[in-house]
């Protein structure tokens, strides 16, 4: 692996990130310069579309297509630019996910350069980084990098004498997992309660302050400088047999070397787990794993040969999500693990819709009974009903469906464990309570 196959992370320095001069000396801002000086916004949009870049926040929607939904404008109309916004979703609160933190703390100028390219392309003069409130070090380093970019003429008026203006603001979130949903994030940015909005209208048409808005994830945006600098073919050739580009994969749980690795999109689950995370700790066997953070379905050891791209993971019944593996070993209780996750989701529900507000704590109550050895077989049926009650199309946003993904798949793959808890009147893994 080298800079060409690890474009997002090869300049990461967690002890002391590169300042503006150091980043520029390593080729930084070359992508932004190429966008502003050599291409029109429409041309950059076509480059991003043709690259095949998909959103790295979880959904995997094509980035260029998303941008194309923003209403077009006359390039000479400055007022049109004043009424559009770019927002970076840096509110990384998905359990088992910490890839954006690596980029925010390790190479902040890369994100700033990326946001210049994105804002220029969609026609926005104002941009915001919506940052998780607990990321104090990232906030400090981002603000320092923003100040340097202003001083160097890469932010503010008449950027690089190209007649383009962009102001970039850092906004630290007051918290809550729901802020990761783009319309809840927009409400929070406006100073309102972080409830998701009804769609349509979508943010690309009516977002921040009612104006056209693009919300993209940190990792998604960070690809832009490299696509502009090296070209479409280079980006696609990083992973010729899968989705284009690289991906930051992670692994946590009882593995030998938990961490993050930037790899070509489409490496298999087994490669991430065994070659990079070092496999499970001695004496443990793999029972299952969540492939893309806490809100994805469990997969089994039989799925280790599955490529970690959007379509392949979907075909085996889960989602790539954030590509952060959460590993369950054979000495850990799947019921306790799912209970822990549901407790998180119940706490983080915004309470706007009944299935999520009432369904997630109800699931916690039932799972608690089962884990304590006080459950009945009827409780398993009730959990299955709840999974249907909170599924896609029955809730205001995707929080509840994401919450039940690990639950419904655990009931599918680890049903014997649930039954054993009930029949033995204790947790067989923890020896009772």
TrEMBL record:
Cofactor(s) this protein cannot do without? FMN; [4Fe-4S] cluster
Keyword check for Nucleotide-binding = no
InterPro entries per the UniProt record, alphabetical: NADH-UbQ_OxRdtase_51kDa_CS, NADH-UbQ_OxRdtase_suF, Nuo51_FMN-bd, Nuo51_FMN-bd_sf, Nuop51_4Fe4S-bd, Nuop51_4Fe4S-bd_sf
Please state the Enzyme Commission number of this protein: 7.1.1.-
Quote the catalytic activity from the record. Answer: a quinone + NADH + 5 H(+)(in) = a quinol + NAD(+) + 4 H(+)(out)
Alphabetical list of Pfam families matching this protein: Complex1_51K, NADH_4Fe-4S
Query: Which UniProt keyword terms apply here?
Result: 4Fe-4S, Flavoprotein, FMN, Iron, Iron-sulfur, Metal-binding, NAD, Quinone, Translocase
Q: Kindly list the residue ranges recorded as spanning the membrane.
A: none
User: Domain NADH-ubiquinone oxidoreductase 51kDa subunit iron-sulphur binding: where?
Assistant: 335-380
Protein family according to the UniProt entry: Belongs to the complex I 51 kDa subunit family.
UniProt function note? NDH-1 shuttles electrons from NADH, via FMN and iron-sulfur (Fe-S) centers, to quinones in the respiratory chain.
Q: What is the recorded name of this protein?
A: NADH-quinone oxidoreductase subunit F
The record lists the organism as Thalassotalea insulae
């Amino acid at each position: 692996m080298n800079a060409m196959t690890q474009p997002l992370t090869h300049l990461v320095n967690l002890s002391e990130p590169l300042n503006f001069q150091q980043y520029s000396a390593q080729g930084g801002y070359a992508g932004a310069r190429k966008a502003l000086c050599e291409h029109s916004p429409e041309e950059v949009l076509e480059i991003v579309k043709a690259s095949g870049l998909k959103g790295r926040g979880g959904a995997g929607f094509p980035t260029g297509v998303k941008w194309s939904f923003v209403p077009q404008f006359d390039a000479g109309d400055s007022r049109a630019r004043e009424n559009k916004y770019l927002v970076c979703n840096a509110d990384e609160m998905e359990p088992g996910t910490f890839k954006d933190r690596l980029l925010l703390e390790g190479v902040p100028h890369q994100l700033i350069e990326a946001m210049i390219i994105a804002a220029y392309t969609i026609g926005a003069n104002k941009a915001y980084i919506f940052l998780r409130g607990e990321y104090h070090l990232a906030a400090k380093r981002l603000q320092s990098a923003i100040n340097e970019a202003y001083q160097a003429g890469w932010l503010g008026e008449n950027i690089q004498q190209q007649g383009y203006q962009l102001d970039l603001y850092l906004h630290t979130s007051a918290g809550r997992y729901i802020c990761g949903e783009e319309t809840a994030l927009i409400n929070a940015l406006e100073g309102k309660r972080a409830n998701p909005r009804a769609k349509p209208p979508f943010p690309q048409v009516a977002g921040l302050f009612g104006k056209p808005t693009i919300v993209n994830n940190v990792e998604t945006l960070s690809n832009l400088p490299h696509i502009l600098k090296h070209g479409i073919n280079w980006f696609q050739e990083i992973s010729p047999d899968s989705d284009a580009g690289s991906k930051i994969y992670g692994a946590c749980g009882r593995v030998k070397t938990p961490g993050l690795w930037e790899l070509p999109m489409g490496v298999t689950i087994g490669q991430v787990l065994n070659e990079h995370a070092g496999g499970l700790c001695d004496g443990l066997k793999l029972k299952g794993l969540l492939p893309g953070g806490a809100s994805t379905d469990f997969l089994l050891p039989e799925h280790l040969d599955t490529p970690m791209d959007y379509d392949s993971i979907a075909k085996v019944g889960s989602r790539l999500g954030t590509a952060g593996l959460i590993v369950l070993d054979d000495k850990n209780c799947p019921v306790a693990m799912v209970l822990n996750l549901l407790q998180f989701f119940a706490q983080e529900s915004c309470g706007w819709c009944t299935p999520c507000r009432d369904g997630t704590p109800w699931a916690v109550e039932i799972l608690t009974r089962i884990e304590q050895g006080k459950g009945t077989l009827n409780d398993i049926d009730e959990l299955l009903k709840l999974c249907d009650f909170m599924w896609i199309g029955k809730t205001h946003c995707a929080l509840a469906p994401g919450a039940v993904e690990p639950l419904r798949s655990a009931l599918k793959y680890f049903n014997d464990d649930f039954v054993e808890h009930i029949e033995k009147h204790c947790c067989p893994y923890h020896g009772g309570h």
